[in-house]
Amino acid sequence: MTIKRTTNGGVAESWAKNEKARSNNGNFSTDGDILYSYNTMIGFTSEEGRKVVLDYTAGTGNFLSMTTSTKHLPPAKGVCNVVLNPTHFQNTDKNF
């Protein structure tokens, strides 16, 4: 099966629908369960099916890149159920 190639917004929408997709340049992708910016997981699907985004921005002290902050996270935040500071996520065992 071919992975759908689409815009960044299309990648986020595909993730919300549990579908595989990647951006035209391949830097933003999803297997339907996990959302990646480059090779870093920036979103995942909880056991309950909720979409959780890890907020890798300067404001959380977890800045990765300008592309992640300005091109990948905004569409992901638009379709998710929960936004978490990555530091808090690393220190919890909660299922979202």
Question: How does this model look, in words?
Answer:
The protein is α/β, with parallel strands linked by helices and 96 residues long. It has one domain (4-88). The protein contains three helices and seven strands. It has helices at residues 8-16, 66-79, 86-90; strands spanning 4-6, 21-23, 28-30, 35-37, 40-45, 51-54, 82-84. Strands 1-2-3-4-5-6-7 form a seven-stranded mixed beta sheet. Helix 2 (66-79) links the parallel strand 6 and strand 7 (82-84). Helix 1 crosses helix 2. The longest helix is centred in the last third of the chain and has 14 residues, at 66-79. It is globular and about 35 Å long.
Keywords:
single chain; 96 residues; alpha/beta; 7-stranded mixed beta sheet; 3 helices; 29% helix
Please specify the SSE layout and strand pairing:
Elements: E1 4-6, H1 8-16, E2 21-23, E3 28-30, E4 35-37, E5 40-45, E6 51-54, H2 66-79, E7 82-84, H3 86-90
Parallel strand pairs: 1-2, 6-7
Antiparallel strand pairs: 2-3, 3-4, 4-5, 5-6
Supply the number of structural domains.
1
Overall pLDDT score: 93
Low-confidence stretches: none
- Compressed to H and E, one letter per element, the order equals EHEEEEEHEH
Per DSSP, the total helix count is: 3
Shape: globular
Summarize the structure.
The chain has 96 residues and is an alpha/beta fold. The chain has three helices and seven strands. The protein has one domain (4-88).
